[in-house]
């Protein structure tokens, strides 16, 4: 089974953690009888912008649109390019043009990782956030009238389409159905946001009828954030609109220790376009070039990618290897209180992969 992967390291620590992800993918391929062909691209980076005056070449869609997946590091170097230019010129284009309408983020407390939630042990925190990734609150519909006057008015609309809401809910219910607990939680705010959010609730209830074996509930986003901190063991699959999902999918990993280990999949489930796998963190300019970045987020993203490519056994082996290595203090990077370099941690995980 040959998988063709577009590799885009981007900026900062993206260039340090992506090679560790590739190292682990090679080890997984050798162990599980599959193969990778990697095509490396230097665009979607601020270096590229400085040379070419744009984040990506005009034909970027043709260059990477035919690959089976995109393996992405991180983009952003605010010293040279403003963040909204680098992000909207690259990652946001991928998500929208490739219709990656699911942003999937596993939240899991790993052995050996200190959590800010007192008394929690691995097993207590093990859930997914499924975030709508293409519409909702993040629309470009709106504008400003009477700018820079006392009569200034600023409007930005939320867009929910039946197709857009139903397809992400279906993905979340299907995921819940495959899991042991078969439990879905919906994030809402239908008491305050009185048009779109009641619609979201209505579609959740309608979708639930198709999945009678999944038990489901809903919470308003405000109390839901409190429950994430106080009762993380309540959750299994949490589905949310674009804005609420954005917030929950940073809060979740924060509850499990370091942002350095969290992965994300930007997924087009129909596979009409390539999906993109990346760590949750950014380019970390404050530690870039020091070879101390934690590569686990990138490596776990590789596991999500393996799963998406139909290599479920290899994906599970990568997650097991991450758990094995994190349990051993000598391979922890500085953000976890250790002294290992990025490559030492990555090598240890690659070596720990077994059937
Ligand atoms: P960041 O995630 O890059 O860094 C936040 C803090 O976490 C920093 O102190 C950093 O050192 C630490 N950190 C992050 N990843 C780490 C790792 N793997 N190991 C150890 N420590 C780690 O977020 P920040 O500082 O807000 O943004 C920096 C740049 O990254 C900006 O240009 C921003 O736009 C971009 N960014 C890009 C993202 C992406 O490509 N998906 C996501 C978030 C930010
Ligand atoms: Mg975010």
From TrEMBL:
The keyword rRNA-binding does not apply. Its cofactor is K(+); Mn(2+); Mg(2+). It comes from the Bacteria. It catalyses: (R)-malate + NAD(+) = pyruvate + CO2 + NADH; (2R,3S)-tartrate + NAD(+) = 2-hydroxy-3-oxosuccinate + NADH + H(+); (2R,3R)-tartrate + NAD(+) = 2-hydroxy-3-oxosuccinate + NADH + H(+); tartrate + NAD(+) = 2-hydroxy-3-oxosuccinate + NADH + H(+). Its EC number is 1.1.1.83, 1.1.1.93, 4.1.1.73. The keyword Manganese applies. GO terms for molecular function: D-malate dehydrogenase (decarboxylating) (NAD+) activity; magnesium ion binding; NAD binding; tartrate decarboxylase activity; tartrate dehydrogenase activity. Keywords: Manganese, Metal-binding, NAD, Oxidoreductase. SMART domains: Iso_dh (SM01329). Residues 4-349 form the Isopropylmalate dehydrogenase-like domain. Pathway: Carbohydrate acid metabolism; tartrate degradation; D-glycerate from L-tartrate: step 1/1; Carbohydrate acid metabolism; tartrate degradation; 2-hydroxy-3-oxosuccinate from meso-tartrate: step 1/1; Carbohydrate acid metabolism; tartrate degradation; 2-hydroxy-3-oxosuccinate from L-tartrate: step 1/1. Pfam families: Iso_dh (PF00180). Gene3D superfamilies: Isopropylmalate Dehydrogenase. NCBIfam families: TTC (TIGR02089). PANTHER family: D-MALATE DEHYDROGENASE [DECARBOXYLATING]. Belongs to the isocitrate and isopropylmalate dehydrogenases family. Has multiple catalytic activities. Apart from catalyzing the oxidation of (+)-tartrate to oxaloglycolate, also converts meso-tartrate to D-glycerate and catalyzes the oxidative decarboxylation of D-malate to pyruvate. This is D-malate dehydrogenase [decarboxylating]. It comes from Pelagerythrobacter rhizovicinus. The lineage of its organism: Bacteria, Pseudomonadati, Pseudomonadota, Alphaproteobacteria, Sphingomonadales.
């Amino acid at each position: 089974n040959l998988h063709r992967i577009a590799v885009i390291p981007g900026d900062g620590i993206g260039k340090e953690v992506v090679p560790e992800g590739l190292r682990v993918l090679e080890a997984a391929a050798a162990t599980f009888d599959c193969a990778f062909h990697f095509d490396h691209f230097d665009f979607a980076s601020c270096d590229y912008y400085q040379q070419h005056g744009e984040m990506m070449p005009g034909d970027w869609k043709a260059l990477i649109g035919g690959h089976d997946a995109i393996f992405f590091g991180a983009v952003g170097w605010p010293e040279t390019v403003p963040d909204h230019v680098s992000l909207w010129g690259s990652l946001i284009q991928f998500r929208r043009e490739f219709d990656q309408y699911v942003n999937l983020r596993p939240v899991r407390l790993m052995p050996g990782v200190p959590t800010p939630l007192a008394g929690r042990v691995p097993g207590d925190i093990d859930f997914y956030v499924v975030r709508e990734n293409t519409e909702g609150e993040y629309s470009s519909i709106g504008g400003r009238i009477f700018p820079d006057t006392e009569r200034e008015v600023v409007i930005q609309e939320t867009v929910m389409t039946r197709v857009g809401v139903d397809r992400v809910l279906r993905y979340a219910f299907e995921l819940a159905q495959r899991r042991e607990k078969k439990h879905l939680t919906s994030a809402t705010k239908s008491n305050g946001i009185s048009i779109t959010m009641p619609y979201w609730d209505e579609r959740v209830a309608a979708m639930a009828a198709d999945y009678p074996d999944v038990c489901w509930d809903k919470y308003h986003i405000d109390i839901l954030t409190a429950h994430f901190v106080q009762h993380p063991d309540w959750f299994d699959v949490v589905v949310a609109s674009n804005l609420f999902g954005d917030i929950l999918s940073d809060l979740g990993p924060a509850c499990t220790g370091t942002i350095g280990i969290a992965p994300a999949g930007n997924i087009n489930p129909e596979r009409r376009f390539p999906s993109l796998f990346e760590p949750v963190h950014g380019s970390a300019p404050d530690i870039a070039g020091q070879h101390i970045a934690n590569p686990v987020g990138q490596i776990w993203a590789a596991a999500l990618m393996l799963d998406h490519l139909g290599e479920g056994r290899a994906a599970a082996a990568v997650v097991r290897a991450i758990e094995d290595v994190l349990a051993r203090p000598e391979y922890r990077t500085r953000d976890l209180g250790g002294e290992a370099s990025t490559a030492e941690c990555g090598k240890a995980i690659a070596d720990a992969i077994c059937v």
